[in-house]
Design goal:
CATH superfamily of chain B: ABC transporter involved in vitamin B12 uptake, BtuC
Shape of chain B: globular
Distance between the termini of chain A: 51 Å
Helix content of chain B: over 70%
Distance between the termini of chain B: 11 Å
Order of helices and strands of chain A: HHHHEEHHHHHHH
Radius of gyration of chain A: 19 Å
Order of helices and strands of chain B: HHHHHHEEEHHHHEHHHH
Number of domains of chain B: 1
Radius of gyration of chain B: 19 Å
Oligomer: heterodimer
Number of strands of chain B: 4
CATH topology of chain B: ABC transporter involved in vitamin B12 uptake, BtuC
CATH class of chain B: Mainly Alpha
Largest sheet of chain A: 2 strands, antiparallel
CATH architecture of chain B: Orthogonal Bundle
């Protein structure tokens, strides 16, 4: 294949990665922004979403799209419920102390991973894509499903932006983020907001996982990469900034796609991780964020 | 601190070492081998404790320092045919260089950013060990042969594959690091570290150079962990990238939290306890990660100070 179509293919693959990454990272960013905690188990919520998608689609017979639609609704709901329970049972009781939270969410990571291994097994399993349409470009055919992932993610990001900036729910969340105590004094049930935000963050990761699982595969160890990539995106984009998250996801996803096509994927990860660690060292507010405090 | 307290402290630590030496003759074969491994891993935990317990810096990347020692010793021995002492020294030197470099970079951040940065540097290190699979053989790892793991002292040859030699060397390393840690935490520098942990701003205002002290703590911690890694490679003859993975950054945190952060003997107790918990649990179920996860959560919920931390708080105030 000549250079240009090759580059186009790499860019398209990168856009699919970006679309999924933006949703996952938005979940992490929301939790960090509002609750000021780092959720190390975020990748496991992603994995749980994918594994549940497999379970739901294989339980429902009939047209693949039917099972997939059910998975897209049920899987995030179950994951959100699990996240909500763990927030209420553990995180709220250690009072969101940053370091204790990291240790607790690491514990959660191990528990979820082990349960997935025990009940789902060590195999990687595919999910049938809901639509099987190929779009024929002049140089190669491209999966219509992959393009629909990009569209779905863009719609969800728009919806998230609308909820965060234009509705009462978003207002309550921003108030809690801005000043927890004052928000409480004004009658905002901060504990319930925290539980909801934690669940919402996990649900975004689960939706991203359900979208990606027909083209990758569900596996109990699949959570680590999205976790690290989401960290990268959230740091580069600046914490709590939705626009920054999307721009950073595009940047990381597309460059990861291009570098992985032309060079080794391991090398791509090494360079991306190293660059971001250095960004965090020398520009802690992120590339697009503004300095706080 | 009174002279009486000092004597008690040193007597206690000497007694622990004496007990470990005595166990060499008393333990059945299986537990003898387990304890040798636990002692090396406890050195790793003591290195972690130096930074986390005393200086209050929570790193999620210490697998990197352990693996630096592991590869720093293992690669020259395997590829260049270096002797055991030279390989061990090269492991320590690698630990020194890597921890100084990482410290200079990572210490520009603090708190949560420090955790994420150390985790990322460790992930880069892990990926690098996979990327250079031609030399490291990645996950599969390298097995160091028996004839390479022997040291000649004139007439006698020390065979590191012999269980007794291995155990005694592990105790020796443990003892050296234990007394070194004790000396560091009782020194001026150790007290400054605790002051930084409690209130960094105030310590800086009192005129202490907090950055240099923290950097020294990172380097001490890194070199101790590298020593554990190098010893692990030489004593157990296996060098693989699993030891550089995130899991090996989490485990020392777990061991130190369990045994008691900022106690000199806590890491040993935590490592020993956790090793046997997993060992016994894996006899009944393969779900050992579940045990690790549940223990971590229970620790932060109900038992923040760990075993020796609680003992010190309730009964034995002079415990270092």
């Amino acid at each position: 294949m000549p250079f240009f179509p090759h580059l186009l293919l790499a860019t398209l693959e990168g856009l699919v990665t970006s679309a999924v990454l933006a949703l996952t990272a938005l979940g992490l960013s929301l939790v960090f922004g509002v609750m000021r905690i780092v959720n190390v188990a975020h990748g496991e919520f992603f994995m749980l979403g994918a594994v549940l998608a497999w379970a739901i689609t294989s339980a429902i017979t009939g047209h693949p799209a039917l099972g997939f639609a059910a998975a897209l609704v049920l899987s995030p709901l179950i994951v959100g419920f699990v996240a909500w329970i763990s927030e209420r049972l553990v995180l709220s009781r250690i009072e969101y102390n940053p370091e204790a939270t990291i240790v607790a969410t690491i514990g959660l990571l191990y528990i979820i991973q082990q349960l997935a291994l025990t009940f789902y097994g060590p195999e990687a399993r595919p999910v049938t894509p809901p639509l099987n349409y190929r779009i024929q470009l002049p140089w190669f055919g491209y999966s219509g499903y992959k393009l629909s992932i990009i569209a779905a993610s863009a719609l969800l990001l728009l919806a998230a932006w609308f909820v965060l900036t234009r509705t009462r729910i978003g207002l309550v969340m921003r108030a809690t983020q801005y000043d927890r105590e004052t928000a409480q004094a004004f009658g905002i049930p901060v504990g319930r907001v925290y539980g909801a935000v934690f669940a919402l963050g996990a649900m975004l990761a689960a939706i991203a996982a359900v979208l990606i699982v027909p083209i990758s595969q569900a596996h109990y160890l699949m959570g680590l990469d999205p976790l690290l990539l989401s960290f990268i995106v959230v740091i580069v984009g600046g914490l709590g900034s939705l626009r920054g998250t999307v721009v950073a996801a595009l940047l990381i996803g597309v460059s990861d796609g291009i570098v992985s096509v032309f060079f080794s994927p391991t090398l791509a990860k090494i360079i991306a991780t190293l660059l971001v660690a250095l960004v965090l060292v020398f520009r802690p507010q992120g590339l697009f964020g503004t300095a706080t405090k | 601190m009174s002279g009486d307290g000092t004597a008690k402290v040193y007597a206690l630590h000497a007694a622990v070492i004496a007990l470990l030496l005595a166990l060499n003759f008393a333990l059945p074969e299986y537990h003898h081998a387990v304890l040798a491994r636990v002692l090396v891993l406890a050195v790793f935990a003591m290195g972690y404790n130096m930074l986390f317990g005393y200086a209050g810096l929570l790193s999620l990347g210490h697998a990197m320092f352990f693996a630096t020692g592991l590869y720093g010793a293992g690669l020259p021995l395997y590829h260049l045919g270096w002797g055991v002492p030279a390989a061990f020294a090269s492991g320590l030197a690698a630990g020194l260089v890597v921890s100084a470099g990482i410290g200079l970079l990572a210490l520009r951040t603090s708190g949560v950013a420090f955790m994420i940065v150390t985790m990322m540097f460790a992930q880069v290190f892990y990926l690098v060990t996979l990327y250079f699979g031609e030399w490291t053989r990645g996950d599969e790892g390298l097995v160091l042969q028996q004839q390479a793991r022997q040291v000649a002292f004139g007439e006698t040859t020390l065979d590191l594959t012999n269980p007794t030699t291995r155990y005694l060397l592990a105790v020796a390393l443990f003892a050296i690091v234990l007394f070194a840690t004790l000396a560091v935490v009782r020194s001026r520098h150790g007290r400054v570290l605790v002051a930084i942990r409690e209130n960094e701003e105030r310590t800086r205002m009192l005129g202490y150079d907090t950055f240099t002290n923290k950097l020294a703590a990172v380097v001490t911690s890194g070199v101790i962990c590298a020593a554990a890694g190098a010893a692990y490679a030489l004593l157990f003859g296996y060098v693989g990238s699993t030891f550089a993975s995130v899991q090996y950054s989490i485990l020392p945190l777990l061991w130190v939290l369990l045994g008691g952060a900022a106690t000199t003997l806590g890491p040993l107790i935590g490592t020993l306890f956790m090793y046997y918990v997993i060992d016994i649990a894996s006899g009944y179920t393969s779900a050992y990660m579940l045990v690790v996860g549940v223990v971590l959560i229970l620790l932060v919920l109900y038992f923040r100070k760990g075993v020796l931390g609680t003992v010190r708080e309730r009964w034995v105030r002079w415990l270092p």
